[in-house]
Amino acid sequence: PMAIRSILHYPDPRLRRRAEPVAAVTAEVRRLVDDMAEPMYDAPGVGLAAIQISVPLRVIVMDVAEAGGEPLREALINPEIIEASPEMERAEEGCLSIPDVQVEVGRHQKITVRYQGVGGAFLQMTAEGFVARVLQHELDHINGRLMTAAKELGEPLAANPDIASDDLMAYIVAQQGDMDAALAAYRVSHPAPPAAPAPPTVG
Questions:
Q1: Which residues in the chain come in under a pLDDT of 50?
Q2: Which residue among 63, 93, 129, 165 is least packed, with the fewest CB closer than 10 Å?
Q3: What's the DSSP call for residue 64?
Q4: Which helix (H) or strand (E) holds 180?
């Protein structure tokens, strides 16, 4: 049997690549789906994007079956969110590419995704709660984003638009997912530039 494909770990720059659309759902793409499922189950995880095994294609696999239940493996090729609820939910997330780190992330509570299945047909899925969260996490991966993209950091980032999310990730990993400690450490090493002097007032 072939060795299980290894999962890229942060800070590997390949995780930052934006994945390309799959032009046609071929036998090769279906083989990729099988190659992705193995490391996902082996980890064990509930979702994996092709980019995480260094294949920059817009393919994700997930299995959100209950523990001990029948597998519910789903492959989504060229997935895109076509509808998202305004309601958001914050919860801790882990990532197979960032082992042992949990980050609190805000996600849409409910989304509808359009995608192609392994047969090539266009399908739609509406998901909420945990399943919607897994989908949004994997969709971030195929767009070259990890758990700390700007919108997910929410208020701390909105108040500090100069914080680069890529940069901040190193601090979050060092602080084991403690966002407040990571932001504090980041600010110490990235002091805000001094304010420009006010122009003189002309009377």
A1: 149-163
A2: 129
A3: -
A4: helix 179-189
98 CB burial (10 A radius; 0-12, 13-18, 19+): buried
Pick from 53, 46, 58, 65: which is nearest to 8 by CA? 53
Give yes or no for a contact between 15 and 52, defined as CB atoms under 8 angstroms apart: yes
- Phi then psi dihedrals of residue 191, to 5 deg: -60, 150
Helix ranges, 143-175 (H): 150-153, 155-159, 165-174
Task: Render pLDDT for 39-97 as a digit per residue (tens, 0 to 9).
Answer: 999 999 999 999 999 999 999 999 998 767 777 899 999 999 999 999 999 888 889 99
The two tokens of residue 126 are: 């509406």
First to last CA, the chain: 83
Which residues are catalytic, by number?
Answer: 138
| DSSP tag of 136 | H
Give the single-character DSSP code of 190: S
